[in-house]
Specification:
- 64% of the residues lie in helices and 11% in strands.
- The protein is an alpha/beta fold and 169 residues long.
- The longest helix has 29 residues.
- The protein contains 7 helices and 4 strands; from the N terminus they run ααβαβαβαβαα.
- Helix 6 crosses helix 7.
- A 4-stranded mixed sheet has the order 2-1-3-4, with helices on both faces.
- The model has no long low-confidence stretch (mean pLDDT 85).
- The protein is elongated.
Length: 169
C-alpha cells in the first residue's frame, strides 16, 4: 500500500502540468455547459403573448390583468379593437384573445360566475392552460364575493387584502 502512495506522488510530480491542464479544462467545460444551459432555458421558457379586451375597466379587471402579468408571467397586449387583436392572432403574434365582459365586477358581487371569453386558433395547449387559470381565479374571487355579501366596498377591501398578503390563487 505504501508503494502505491509513493508511485502516485511521483507521477503527480512528473505530470504536474498535465494535471493542472486537465483541472482547468474540466473547470472551463463546466462553466461553458452551465452558461449554455441558462441560455437555452431562457429561450425555451419564453413568455406567452395574450391579447386582452377589457370592456369592464374595473378594479377587478385590473386585478385580473395583474394576476396574468405578475403571477403567471404572461405578456398582455391590451387593445380596444377586436379587429386589431384578431389580426395579431392570425399572424400568430399572440396565442389567445381574452375578452373581459362589461359588468364583471357587478356579476361577481352577485356571486354568479361571469363568462370570460377566450378565442384561439391553433394554440390549444396554451388556451387550455389559460382557461384553467381563469377558472381558478374566478372561483377564488367568488369566495371573496361571498365573504363581502354583495357589498362593493367590502369586496374591494377584501380584494386588496387578498393581494397584499400574496395569497396564490
Amino acid at each position: 500500500m505504501k508503494n502505491i502512495i509513493i508511485l502516485t506522488k511521483l507521477n503527480i510530480k512528473r505530470n504536474y502540468y498535465a494535471l493542472l491542464l486537465s483541472v482547468l479544462g474540466a473547470a472551463m467545460l463546466s462553466i461553458l455547459l452551465y452558461s449554455l444551459g441558462n441560455l437555452i432555458a431562457d429561450m425555451t421558457v419564453a413568455k406567452v403573448n395574450i391579447g386582452v379586451l377589457d370592456y369592464d375597466n374595473s378594479l377587478l379587471s385590473h386585478d385580473f390583468k395583474q394576476y396574468m402579468k405578475e403571477e403567471l408571467n404572461y405578456n398582455l397586449l391590451e387593445n380596444d379593437s377586436y379587429d386589431d387583436l384578431t389580426t395579431e392572432l392570425i399572424d400568430k403574434d399572440i396565442s389567445v384573445i381574452i375578452e373581459i365582459p362589461k359588468g364583471l365586477h357587478k356579476t361577481v358581487l352577485t356571486e354568479s360566475k361571469p363568462e370570460i371569453l377566450i378565442t384561439s386558433l391553433e394554440d390549444y395547449e396554451n388556451a387550455a392552460f389559460i382557461e384553467a387559470y381563469i377558472n381558478s381565479y374566478i372561483s377564488s374571487i367568488l369566495m371573496l364575493a361571498a365573504g363581502a355579501q354583495g357589498n362593493q366596498k367590502a369586496f374591494d377591501q377584501l380584494l386588496g387584502d387578498y393581494r397584499d398578503v400574496n395569497i396564490i390563487l
